[in-house]
Amino acid sequence: MESSSTQASNMESPGLGPIPSRLPECSANLPLMEDSRCQSLEFGQCDGQCNNVTGLQLPGVLDELFSYEGPLGAIFSKEAVTLYLWAPTAQYIKTGCACLHLRDPSGGDPLEIVCLEEFNDVWSASGPKSWEGCYYEYEVSVYHPSTLQIEKCTANDPYARGLSADARRTLLVNLNSDDLKPEGWDNLADEKPALLSFSDISIYELHIRDFSASDHTVHPDFRGGYLAFTSQGVEKQNVASCFIIFILHGEDEIFLGNGGTKARDMAFWVVGGCFSSFVTDHRFDAGHRSDFGKAVEGLEIWHLDSAGILHLKKLCNAGISHLHLLPTFQFAGVDDEKDKWKCVDPNILETLPPDSVEQQAQIMTIQDEDGYNWGYNPVLWGVPKGSYASNPSSPCRTLEFRKMVQALNRIGFRVVLDVVYNHLHGSGPFDENSVLDKIVPGYFLRRNSDGCIEHSACVNNTASEHFMVERLILDDLLCWAVDYKVDGFRFDLMGHIMKRTMVKAKNMLHSLSKDTDGIDGSSIYIYGEGWDFGEVAKNGRGVNASQFNLCGTGIGSFNDRIRDAMLGGSPFGHPLQQGFVTGLFLQDNDLFSYVNKVLVEGVIVDSLEPNDHDHGGEEVAERMLAVSKDHIQGLLLTCSINMLTVLGLIVVRSCSEAVIALFSKPNCSGNPRFGC
Asked: From what superkingdom does this record's organism come (predicted)?
C-alpha cells in the first residue's frame, strides 16, 4: 500500500517531513493493531535486494488507533477499587500482559498478583475496597526500541497519587477520603484571598526547604516541609498541658516545664502575654526545672508564629498576592527517607569565606546525597514530594500538602505550583526513575529523526503533541486544581509544550466552578517560560507555546527583554555583557524597543532574577568588577524600582527583598535544578 505524507499530516507533525513510505496491507493475518506490539521496520530495496532498514516511530499510529478518553489510574467506589492502565504496545506473557503486584503498607512480598484484562488496549483490574491503602506496581512485557528486544518492566502507575517511601511502589490513596482533608477543606474556596483582576497579581518565588530548613522557631519535625507553613499562633493553652521553652540571653540558659525534656529547637512560647517581665523576675537554668514549673503554674501560654510566617505576613501586607512554590511533585535527586541524608557540618562552613570556592567544595562532597534539590527533575507529576512530608510512606503527604495550601490562603496568599511537563528525569526499561517510557516505550518522549530522545529541555523531552501526553498533562493539572485547590501554575520551559495544549489547559481550568468542582477556576492564573529553542523552535514540532505564539491567548509569559536590558546579556550569556543598570547608562539598548504594548491583561510577567541562575547581586557583581558592595546594593535597588514600575506582573525571587546572595549551590551540571 503506497502512501506519502499529506499537507495536513505535515501541518500536524511538521518534524516528520514529506517522506514517502510503504505500509503493509492490513489483513486478518497481519492487522495493523497487532503490528504496534512488535518490532516494526521499514526497508528499502533495489533490484530485489534489501539495501536499507530502519525502525519506525509509532506515536502517530497510536494516536490514530488507540486514543482514549476513559478513566485512568485508580478509581474508588463505595464497594471496590478499579485500576486502568493505557498500554497499547504491551505484549502477552505467561501471567498476562500486565501484572498487578499488590503489597501491604509495610512492603515485602506481594500479597496478591492480579492479571489485568485488556479491552481496546486499556488494561484494568478490580478488587475489594480493602485494596485502599495498599501498594502496587505494574509489570509490563513490552518491546522497547532502546534495547531492540522485549523487556519485562516494573513501573509505577503514571496516574499515581501516592507512593511508598522509596518511591518504588504506588500507594492506593483515595483523595476524596475525609481522613485526608483538613478541617474546613471543602469550603476553602470561600476563604481564598480576593483577586479582582490578573493585573493585580504580584508573585513571590519560594523553595519549600529554603523557607524553614534552618528556622529554629519551627518545630524540628516540620522544618523544610509542608507543615512549616502552618506554624501560626491560633490557640492558647495551659502550662499543665504542654512543654515550654524559653531562650533567655544565650543557648545555655534553656529550661523546660512539665516534663523537663531538653528540646532546644522546639517552637517558642510566650507566658501570659508578658514575656519580658517574666524573664526579668524568673531566671532559671536547666538545673532548676522544678522551680520553673512552680513559677509558671496556671499561667496561659500562646504559640508564636514562626520567623518565616512573620516574614510572609509582612510580604502579604506589602502587596504580594501569590506564593510560587518551586517544584513540589515527586522528583529525583533527594531521598524521601530523611535518615539517609548526608549533611556538611555547618560549623565548618561558618569558618570558610561565603564567596569562596571552599564552601562549594565542602557541599559538593555530599551532592546527590543531601536533602536539597531545586526539583526540576520530575519522576511523577501527580504525587506530592515525600521528602517535604513528615512521613513519606503514608498518605500524610496529601494531608500535609493540603494543610499548607489552606494555611497560605488564610495568611492572604494564593498558591502557584511550578509544573515541569517539558521533560522527565528517567527513561528506558531499567532506570528506576523511568515510568512512562516503561509503560509505552517510544511514545511519551520526543525523538529526533534518528530515533534518539531529544534533550534540549534538559533530558528526556516529553511530546505534548501526542494525544495521550497532552491528556496526561491536562488530567494532572485538573487534579492539582480540584483536589489540592491551588490557584495558579507556572510552566517550566513552556515553549517546549504545544500552544494547543496550553490553550486547552487554560479553558479547562477556567471552566471550573465552586458549585460543581469546589473552586473558582476563573481566578486560576497560568504563565510560564515561553522560550523558543531546541527542536520546537520556529514551530518545528507544531505550533508551540512560545512568547509570540501565545499572543492573544491570555496566558502569561516571562519577559526576558526588560530583564536582560537592565542586567545585560542573558542568564547563560557572557558575564561581562553590561546592561542599562550595570554600566550602559549612556548607550541605547535596542532590547527596550520590543516592550511596547499589551493586548491582554496579565500576559507579561517581569522578573529580575530567573530561578535557574544567580541572584541579582551576583549578576551585578559579575558585570561591574570594581565597585563596592554598597554600590551593588544601590544598583540592585535601582533594578528593583525599574521592575516594580514596568508594565506587567511582577515575580520576586525569595531573599531578593533582603538583598541576599545565596552561594550555597550553583546552577551547573549535576546541580540542584537539573539533578543530572
From this structure: Eukaryota
Secondary structure tally for the chain: helices H, strands E: 17, 28
Give pLDDT, residue 630. Answer: 66
- Beta strands across the sheet bearing 236-238: 236-238, 300-303, 269-271
Q: Which of 125-129, 559-563, 595-599, 644-648 has the lowest mean pLDDT?
A: 595-599
Beta-strand ranges (E) seen in 116-267 are 117-119, 122-128, 135-144, 149-155, 170-171, 202-206, 236-238, 244-247, 254-257
Res 297 pLDDT > 60: no
Using CA atoms, how far apart are residues 34 and 476, in angstroms rounded to an integer?
A: 30
How far apart are alpha carbons 453 and 4 in whole angstroms?
Answer: 25
Q: State pLDDT tens for residues 563-598.
A: 666 666 666 666 667 665 665 554 444 444 444 444
Listed residue (136, 81, 77) closest to 112, CA to CA = 136
Can you list the domains of the chain with their CATH numbers? 2-63 (no CATH), 72-180 (2.60.40.10), 233-304 (no CATH)
DSSP codes, 473-513: HHHHHHHHHHHS---EEEETTGGGSBHHHHHHHHHHHHT--
Contact between residue 258 and residue 239 where contact means Cβ atoms under 8 Å apart: yes
Q: Which amino acid is at 659?
A: V
Q: Write out pLDDT tens, residues 317-335.
A: 999 999 999 999 999 999 9
Task: For cell 516505550, name the residue.
Answer: 441
Cell representation of residue 676: 543530572
Alpha carbon distances (Å) from 665 to 40, 268, 296, 458, 675: 46, 31, 45, 18, 12
Phi, psi of 188 (to 5 degrees): -65, -30
Give the Cα separation of 141 and 91 in Å (integer): 5
- H or E element, residue 201: none
Q: What is the pLDDT of residue 58?
A: 86
**Euclidean distance between CA atoms 274 and 2, whole angstroms:** 88
pLDDT at residue 56, rounded to an integer: 79
Distances (CA, A) of 516 to 174, 416, 462, 522, 635: 19, 22, 32, 13, 50
- pLDDT at residue 322 in the model: 98
Reference 605, options 552, 648, 667; nearest CA is 648
Cell 495568611 -> residue = 411
pLDDT at residue 39 in the model? 63
| 30-33: long-range contacts, CB 8 A cutoff, minimum separation 24 | 32/61, 32/65, 33/65, 33/121
As a whole number of angstroms, the distance between CA 226 and CA 237 comes to 24
Point out the residues that are catalytic. Answer: 492, 529
CA distance 385 to 387: 6
Query: How many Å apart are CA 136 and CA 87, to the nearest integer?
Result: 17
The per-residue pLDDT for range 510-528, each reduced to its tens digit, is 999 999 999 999 999 999 9
Buried b or exposed e, range 520-553, using 16+ CB within 10 angstroms: bbebbbbbbbbbbebbbeebebbbbbbbebbeeb
Residues 622, 568: Cα–Cα separation, whole Å: 11
Output phi, psi for 412, to 5 deg.
130, 10
C-alpha 41/C-alpha 57 separation (Å) is: 9
Question: What are residue 21's DSSP bridge partners?
Answer: 3
Residue of 647, 470, 610, 415 whose CA lies nearest to 528: 610
C-alpha cell at 278: 517574666
Q: How far apart are CA 148 and CA 41, in angstroms?
A: 11
The DSSP annotation for 80-102 comes to: EEEEEEE-TTB---TT-SEEEEE
The DSSP bridge partners found for residue 155 are: 138
623 touches 583 (CB < 8 A) = yes
